Amino acid sequence: MGMVSEDGKTARRAYREYVEKEGAEEGRNPLEDVYGGVILGSRGFIKQALRTLKEAALDQEEIARRRELRKFEIEDVIEAVCSYFEVPADRLTEGGNDLRDMAIYLLKRHTSGLNRQIGEFFEGLTYSGVSKANQRFSMRMSGDRSLRKAVENITKSLSNVKV
Prior knowledge:
With 163 residues, the chain is an all-alpha fold. It contains 10 helices and no strands. 20% of the residues are buried. The radius of gyration is 19 Å and the shape is elongated. Helix 5 (74-85) packs across helix 7 (98-110), helix 7 (98-110) packs across helix 9 and helix 8 packs across helix 9.
């Protein structure tokens, strides 16, 4: 409510007016436009709300629907990885390489894609294969500073949230 107005009474009134106005449209369900399962409002309002979130806040388990708030598409993350390493996307789909495992790790962190969906991008990799690649890369990254730095740089190239 503090994002609508600093005065609590004004904020409640303004938000109620917004919801009632949206609900007044014939046959339209305003909940269809809920972003990430938790934010209802105009595009500008949603952007303003998302700017207040910090990446650390999105990592906290107490944040409901946090995966949906990190709403990057698989293609967005793939593009960021390919751009960083200056390689074509088909290079990432090759089995058993660090780029593929890094892409899987980033997809697991920054998209709401399920293992099955991520596996389909990587030419039929099974959901368990996605899980194993993610685990394998996480273990490698814990002992390899250059991998951590690359992941950090790619993550920075993606904005905190996407509307």
